[in-house]
C-alpha cells in the first residue's frame, strides 16, 4: 500500500517540536531512510544501545550492527522491515552493547510503502524499550516457584525416607537416632517456613524498649555462634556501649539472626563476619559484613524481592542451616523487607562479587585454605563480599 507522506517526512530536517518530543521520550526511537541509512536517533536510543550520535546517524544500519554476531536478531529485525515491508512488527530481542552489557529490548516498528526511494525519505520507524528489569523479574519469579517447591519438597522427602528407615525391624540404634535427628531438623525447617510466611502476612507490632546495646546484642550473637559451631567462621562484633530507647528487641533479634545467618552461609571456612552497631545522627546503624563470594550485579536489584536466590535451584541442597552455600529460603530477606516497608527500619546493602568467580555457575571451594586463587584470609577479604545495613531511626 502506498502512503501519502506528510511534507515533514519528505524533508531532511526534523520539525523543532518533533525534536523536543523525541528528546523527552523514555523509549528509544530510530527512523530509517528507504536506503537503509539511520536518519534519526533520539537520546534514549543512544543511551540504551550504548552509542553516541556520530557513530550511528547517517550510517547504514547493517554497518552499525554487523560487527557483533550476538546482535544478529536485532539487525535482522531491521532488515526484515526493509525487505518484507510489513505495516507493523513487534519482537523481543536481546542486545549486546559495545561495553559488553546485555539488555532485553521490546521493539515495535512501522513501515510506510513509498512510490520511489530517494535519500532523506524515512519509511521505517522503530520504537524500543529497555525491558531488562522486567525480563529479569520474570526469570526470578520462575526460579522462585522452583525454589519454593524445592524448599517444601526437600524436607518432606527427607522425613518420608527417614520414616521408612525407622520402620525397618533391624535398624541399629545409632541409625535410628540419626533418622530421628533428620526428621526433627526438617520438621523445624517446615515450621520456620510457615512462621516466616505468617510473620510477613501479619508483622509483629513495633514496641521499642530502653536497651543497653552490648548486653542486648552480645547474647544474640553468642546464641548464633553456638548454632554454627560446626563451621570455621568467626563472627566478631564492635558494639558501642550506649543506652537507647528506639529498638524493639524482637525486631532487632530477627534482623540480626537473618543477616548473620545469611553472612555465615556466604563465608568460606577460615573467613570472618563482622557485626558493628553504632549510634549515628539518624539513630542506630547496624552493619553485618561478610567477605564471602558476593552477589552478582545483575541479581542485586531483586535480592529483596522474596525467594530470589543467586544460584540455580539444583545448586541448593539439603544442607544444615549455616552450612557454606546452604542456600537459604530467601524468605528471611523478604521478611526484613516487609518490616522495612512497615517503617520499623531501613535496610540496604552493597556487594562485590568475588572477582575469581564472577558468574553464578562459578563455584567457591568453601574453604579459604583450598582456594587456588588467594593466599590466606586477607586475600579472601580483598576479593569480594557483602555489607547489609539496617538503620533504626530515632522516633
Automatic annotation (TrEMBL):
Top enzyme class: transferase
Topology class, membrane: Multi-pass membrane protein
EC number: 2.7.13.3
Alphabetized GO MF terms: ATP binding; phosphorelay response regulator activity; phosphorelay sensor kinase activity; protein kinase activator activity
Keywords: ATP-binding, Kinase, Membrane, Nucleotide-binding, Transferase, Transmembrane, Transmembrane helix, Two-component regulatory system
Catalytic activity: ATP + protein L-histidine = ADP + protein N-phospho-L-histidine
Subcellular location(s) per record: Membrane
Chief place of localization: membrane
Any one biological process term the GO annotation gives: osmosensory signaling via phosphorelay pathway
Name by which UniProt lists this protein: histidine kinase
Species this chain originates from: Desulfomonile tiedjei
Amino acid at each position: 500500500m502506498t502512503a501519502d507522506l506528510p511534507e515533514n517526512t519528505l524533508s531532511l530536517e526534523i520539525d523543532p517540536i518533533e525534536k523536543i518530543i523525541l528528546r523527552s521520550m523514555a523509549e528509544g526511537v530510530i527512523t530509517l531512510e528507504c536506503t537503509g541509512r539511520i536518519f534519526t536517533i533520539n537520546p534514549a536510543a543512544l543511551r540504551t544501545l550504548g552509542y553516541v550520535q556520530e557513530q550511528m546517524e547517517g550510517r547504514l544500519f547493517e554497518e552499525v550492527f554487523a560487527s557483533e554476531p550476538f546482535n544478529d536478531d536485532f539487525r535482522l529485525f531491521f532488515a526484515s522491515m526493509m525487505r518484507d515491508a510489513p505495516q507493523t512488527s513487534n519482537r523481543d530481542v536481546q542486545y549486546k552493547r559495545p561495553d559488553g552489557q546485555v539488555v532485553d529490548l521490546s521493539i515495535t516498528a512501522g513501515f510506510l510503502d513509498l512510490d520511489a526511494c530517494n535519500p532523506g525519505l524515512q519509511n521505517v520507524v522503530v520504537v524500543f524499550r529497555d525491558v531488562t528489569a522486567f525480563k529479569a523479574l520474570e526469570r526470578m519469579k520462575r526460579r522462585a516457584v522452583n525454589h519454593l517447591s524445592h524448599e517444601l519438597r526437600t524436607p518432606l522427602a527427607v522425613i518420608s525416607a527417614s520414616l521408612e528407615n525407622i520402620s525397618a525391624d533391624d535398624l541399629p540404634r545409632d541409625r535410628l537416632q540419626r533418622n530421628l535427628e533428620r526428621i526433627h531438623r526438617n520438621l523445624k525447617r517446615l515450621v520456620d517456613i510457615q512462621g516466616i510466611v505468617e510473620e510477613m502476612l501479619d508483622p509483629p507490632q513495633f514496641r521499642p524498649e530502653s536497651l543497653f546495646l552490648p548486653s542486648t546484642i552480645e547474647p544474640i550473637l553468642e546464641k548464633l555462634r553456638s548454632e554454627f559451631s560446626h563451621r570455621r567462621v568467626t563472627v566478631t562484633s564492635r558494639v558501642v556501649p550506649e543506652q537507647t530507647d528506639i529498638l524493639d528487641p524482637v525486631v532487632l533479634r530477627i534482623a540480626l539472626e537473618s543477616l548473620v545467618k545469611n553472612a555465615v552461609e556466604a563465608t568460606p571456612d577460615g573467613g570472618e563476619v563482622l557485626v558493628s552497631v553504632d549510634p549515628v545522627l539518624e539513630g542506630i546503624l547496624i552493619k553485618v559484613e561478610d567477605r564471602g563470594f558476593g552477589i552478582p550485579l545483575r541479581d542485586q536489584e531483586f535480592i529483596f524481592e522474596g525467594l530470589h536466590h543467586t544460584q540455580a535451584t539444583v545448586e541448593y541442597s539439603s544442607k544444615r542451616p549455616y552450612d557454606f552455600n546452604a542456600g537459604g529460603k530467601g524468605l528471611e530477606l523478604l521478611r526484613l523487607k516487609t518490616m522495612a516497608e512497615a517503617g520499623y527500619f531501613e535496610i540496604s546493602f552493597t556487594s562485590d562479587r568475588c572477582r575469581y568467580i564472577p558468574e553464578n555457575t562459578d563455584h567457591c571451594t568453601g574453604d579459604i585454605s583450598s582456594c587456588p586463587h588467594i593466599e590466606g584470609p586477607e586475600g579472601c577479604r580483598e576479593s569480594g563480599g557483602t555489607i547489609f545495613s539496617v538503620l533504626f531511626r530515632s522516633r
